[in-house]
Design brief:
With 99 residues, the chain is mainly alpha-helical. The chain has helices at residues 4-9, 21-37, 54-63, 80-93, and strands at residues 13-15, 46-50, 67-69. It has a three-stranded parallel β-sheet with strand order 1-2-3, with helices on one face. The longest helix is centred in the N-terminal third of the chain and has 17 residues, at 21-37.
């Protein structure tokens, strides 16, 4: 999670590296608390997380994530065909269903 000063003074975003939704939700609570204590809770702030499927995206949205980063499996063989297939699958299974 970003340092407190980045959270308080940034008008940008914070990227979560939480291992699970409980930890992510706690981090979002901390971010909100720090911003509120600094009188900045009314300013725009983007909270980003990684999610690879529609269920994960919906759960992230429920707990306050505002942007999703998505990418193919980092451990997979990175070929042009693999990446192209991943994009098509992601478009069909996720993007087409997100409003």
């Amino acid at each position: 999670m970003a340092h407190r000063s980045n959270i308080v003074f940034s008008e940008g975003s914070s990227q979560s590296k939480a291992e699970d939704y409980v930890e992510l939700e706690e981090q979002i609570g901390t971010i909100r608390r720090h911003r509120s204590e600094a009188g900045r809770s009314d300013l725009p702030f983007d909270i980003r997380a990684f999610a690879s499927n529609l269920d994960d995206i919906k759960r992230c949205e429920e707990i306050g994530v505002t942007s999703i980063n998505a990418s193919p499996d980092a451990n997979a063989k990175s070929t042009k065909d693999y990446f192209t297939d991943w994009i098509k699958q992601y478009a069909d299974e996720v993007i087409s269903k997100v409003s």
